[in-house]
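Exercise 7. Given the encoded structure of a 224-residue chain, write a plausible sequence.
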């Protein structure tokens, strides 16, 4: 599977373009992905990954400073990609539709089984996993970091001056659930493929529910 630069890994330097280091990183991620698929988040430890990948532990530490970084990079392989920077031209409605349509396409391309597994793996730890946090990443921290990536492009639009002028006060987390929730639910359940037309309806419903009401002066036109 193709490697994708992770925001959770160390800053790259000139040595990171070395094909040997690229290969070793991919072997580590391949091993972590296999362990996650077969044993869940509890199976992904530094010991297990080095044994499965046959990569030295010192090399692992050059790529990933702790289990959280390794798991986050693995999840980034499994979860739908994050959209590029949000559109900056057009009306608020047009920008939201374009961004939501982009994200819907990425959701559709993501492998369903591994995507579901990754989200489940980010759930709260239980039992032995809760007692072995030193050797594993904190799922809560991982979940928050990855969700932040999904939310950031939408937040950039919803925090714009145009959005503040057009929309009433809203709960940012609820709004993101309203916009992105249908995409995730449709993909997970297989009920339907979300089309651009669906994205238009989702955005229009959201705007209808949150658009600021005209004030009384705007509603009452002056008499001639």
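Solution.
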């Amino acid at each position: 599977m193709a490697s994708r630069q992770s925001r959770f890994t160390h800053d790259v330097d000139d040595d990171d373009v070395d094909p040997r280091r690229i290969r070793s990183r991919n072997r580590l991620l391949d091993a972590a992905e296999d362990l996650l698929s077969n044993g869940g988040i509890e199976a992904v430890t530094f010991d297990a990954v080095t044994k499965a990948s046959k990569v030295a532990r010192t090399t692992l530490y050059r790529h990933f400073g702790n289990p959280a970084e390794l798991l986050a990079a693995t999840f980034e392989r499994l979860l739908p990609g994050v959209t590029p920077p949000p559109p900056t031209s057009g009306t608020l409605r047009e920008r939201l539709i374009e961004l939501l349509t982009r994200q819907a396409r990425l959701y559709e391309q993501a492998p369903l089984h591994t995507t579901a597994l990754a989200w489940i793996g980010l759930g709260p730890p239980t039992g032995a996993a809760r007692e072995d946090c030193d050797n594993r990443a904190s799922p809560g921290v991982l979940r928050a970091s990855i969700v932040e990536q999904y939310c950031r492009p939408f937040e950039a639009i919803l925090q714009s001056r145009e959005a503040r002028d057009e929309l009433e006060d809203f709960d940012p987390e609820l709004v993101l659930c309203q916009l992105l929730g249908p995409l995730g639910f449709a993909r997970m359940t297989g009920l339907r493929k979300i089309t651009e037309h669906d994205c238009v309806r989702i955005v229009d419903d959201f705007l209808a529910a949150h658009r600021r009401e005209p004030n009384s002066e705007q509603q009452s036109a002056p008499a001639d």
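Remark. Residues 1-15, 125-136 have pLDDT under 50 and may be disordered. Students should compare their own answers with the one above.
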